TrEMBL record:
It is found in: Endomembrane system. This is Transmembrane protein 135 N-terminal domain-containing protein. It is a multi-pass membrane protein. Belongs to the TMEM135 family. Its main location: membrane. The keyword Transmembrane helix applies. Coiled coil: none annotated. Pfam families: TMEM135_C_rich (PF15982). Residues 295-415 form the Transmembrane protein 135 N-terminal domain. PANTHER family: TRANSMEMBRANE PROTEIN 135, TRANSMEMBRANE PROTEIN 135-RELATED. One of its GO terms (cellular component) is endomembrane system. Keywords: Membrane, Transmembrane, Transmembrane helix.
Length: 482
């Protein structure tokens, strides 16, 4: 789903006809008028006129890729930001635990982030196409065909810096690396040389295993060491984990073998919920901390209903934004079937997330009661089978989700190692995320140019729309260079 046609308050305000409404008394307000768009169009034409006519096609490809890249970045980040702001505005004041910034400041920040991501993807697309055309012009399309996209992808990687010179994007870099690894493994599977080595990667339920492995690290960190998780992901887990911080601290104390530091805070929390109870400081199993006076079974069903209501707003933009980008042509021909499919996907994915969060508490309760104790290894053991909830999701989405979670699990794992002093030198590495991202985009763009069959069609359609279908290794008529 794309952002709405009008966003007011320190931001864009554009009607469907392309004319901007009046922007009110704000230095940060951006007014876009039809005359501005015409001026931009004239500027682009004047640039093209300065270039020899035989190079017009190449220059137009660069400009088009930049604009489309900006559109994708702006649309995705803007859509997600819009729903985040909408959720904040609809949330009751009593539910806001931290009132640090005003709604206006949040809107301005979201707009800035949206513009940054638009510039990031626009610059990445423009840089890649520019380098692709430049290398081909200098070295010849035929001679450089096997490595041109690899180098161009690597050179475009530093465009990540446009999202903020001081902002680390370790999670994004690791996730893109995971995506690149999947593409590389698919290339290896169909390769005669590496086919045998990569055969284990064809395991039917490998995605679910990766999800279980990731869940063990992520959910253990959620309970025991939240500072090892990215701030945005930590907020996501705190919301959908459905437990007050006092409860998590109580579980952490008993799992770490320490004396309880906040049983009074847990009791006070349950009292605000209408439950008056006294907790045993000598308890071995923290079930009474997790769900108060509810039974384990009763807690599972009540938590599932609450978790499903929290999950629905998460997946609406996930399904509707791509519908406008990937299925933009089909949406005009068969809008009802595409929207119905999106709503079904929203319901299915919401069920996955709610079952995932519910089963995390179900399995940990089961393991704690089975061994009649609670410690760190049992927390990791109890959170491992939580990943089985991924089976609810559509098969084509499972690997995507498992890789997303694996990237965060890897980041959390190495952060924990570094905090314990096992990786002291890792703290001194500056902007390693840009290096990893550049390496990953080099692999991805090489596969896009030379191994296109390893992409799923929907991703390939988006790449083709942004970058243009890459020219074949030898054009027709035959290339003159050798």
């Amino acid at each position: 789903m794309s952002p709405p046609s009008a966003v007011t308050g320190n931001g864009f305000h554009i009607d469907d006809d392309g004319k901007s409404n009046d922007c009110k008394h704000s230095n940060e307000c951006i007014c876009v008028s039809s005359s501005t768009l015409l001026s931009l169009r004239s500027f682009c034409r004047s640039i093209i006129e300065l270039v020899p006519s035989k190079e017009h096609k190449k220059l137009w490809r660069i400009i088009t890729a930049s604009v489309k890249g900006f559109t994708v970045g702006f649309g995705l980040k803007g859509g997600l930001g819009f729903f985040a702001i909408l959720a904040r505005l609809t949330r009751k004041k009593s539910q806001r635990k931290e009132i640090v910034v005003t709604n206006g400041e949040v809107i301005v920040t979201a707009l800035k982030e949206t513009l940054r991501y638009g510039l990031f993807l626009g610059t990445f697309a423009g840089t890649f196409v520019s380098m692709d055309e430049l290398i081909g012009a200098i070295g010849g399309h035929r001679r450089t065909a096997k490595w041109r996209a690899l180098l161009a992808g690597a050179l475009a990687g530093p465009s990540m810096l446009l999202t903020g010179l001081e902002t680390q994007h370790t999670s994004l870099a690791i996730y893109i690396l995971m995506r690149a690894s999947v593409l590389a493994s698919r290339c290896g599977i169909k390769s005669k040389r590496f086919g045998t080595i990569c055969k284990p990667l064809t395991w039917k339920h490998g995605d679910i295993f990766l999800m279980c492995l990731s869940s063990s690290q992520i959910l253990s960190a959620y309970i025991l060491k939240q500072e090892s998780l990215p701030s945005s992901y930590k907020s996501f887990l705190n919301k959908h984990g459905g437990k007050d911080m006092a409860i998590l601290q109580g579980i952490k104390d008993i799992a770490s073998g320490k004396a309880f530091s906040n049983l009074g805070a847990v009791e006070k929390y349950y009292k605000t919920m209408g439950v008056d109870m006294k907790l045993d400081p000598n308890m071995k199993v923290p079930c009474s901390i997790v769900h108060g006076n509810q039974s384990c079974t009763g807690h599972i069903f009540s938590f599932l209903l609450q978790a499903y209501r929290r999950a629905l707003p998460v997946y609406l933009p996930v399904y509707l934004i791509p519908a406008l980008i990937v299925h933009r042509q089909g949406l005009l021909k068969r809008p009802f079937s595409i929207l119905a499919k999106g709503l079904f996907g929203t319901g299915r994915s919401s069920l996955f997330l709610s079952v995932y969060c519910t089963s995390a508490w179900m399995w940990t309760c089961f393991v704690f009661r089975l061994f009649n104790r609670c410690n760190i290894p049992l927390v990791a053991m109890g959170t491992f089978p939580t990943g089985l909830a991924l089976a609810i999701e559509k098969k084509s989405r499972r690997m995507e989700i498992s890789l997303y979670c694996l990237a965060r699990a890897i980041e959390s794992f190495f952060t924990c190692l570094a905090d314990e002093g096992y990786l002291p030198q890792s703290r001194k590495i500056k902007r390693a995320d840009v290096v990893v991202f550049s390496l990953s985009t080099a692999i991805i763009m090489h596969c896009y140019a030379e191994e296109r069959e390893v992409f799923r069609s929907k991703y390939l359609n988006v790449l083709d729309w942004v970058f243009g279908v890459p020219p074949p290794s030898c054009e027709s008529p035959p290339c003159k260079d050798t």
